[in-house]
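Following up on my earlier thread - several people asked me to post the actual chain instead of describing it. Fair enough. Here it is, all 101 residues.
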Amino acid sequence: MVMVKVIEVAKLPEKAPVPVSVGTKALLVVKDGDKIYVADGICPHGRWLLSLGTYRDGHLTCKGHGTVYNLETGEGELKGYKYYIRTYKAVIKDGAVYVEI
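Reply from S.P.:
Thanks for posting it. Predicted structure:
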């Protein structure tokens, strides 16, 4: 595994999902105070871009069908069905967000 820089912290708005790409991998980053969440950027349910969704209290709601994902665990739910996205541990170094890919 290698640590990859994904975005400068200064470029992150507060509590809004931001799309980023690492190679061909689509990710999203959310800054909530001192907490930074990084997760897969594509909803496995309907293949929607999760960065188009809405964020609130550690959870992201997919714009497509309303699947709600916990950005700590990657677990999502829609109408009683479970879905999962991969979450990544964010490391802040020299003003930038890094993840292990």
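The chain has a mean pLDDT of 96. That should answer part of your original question.
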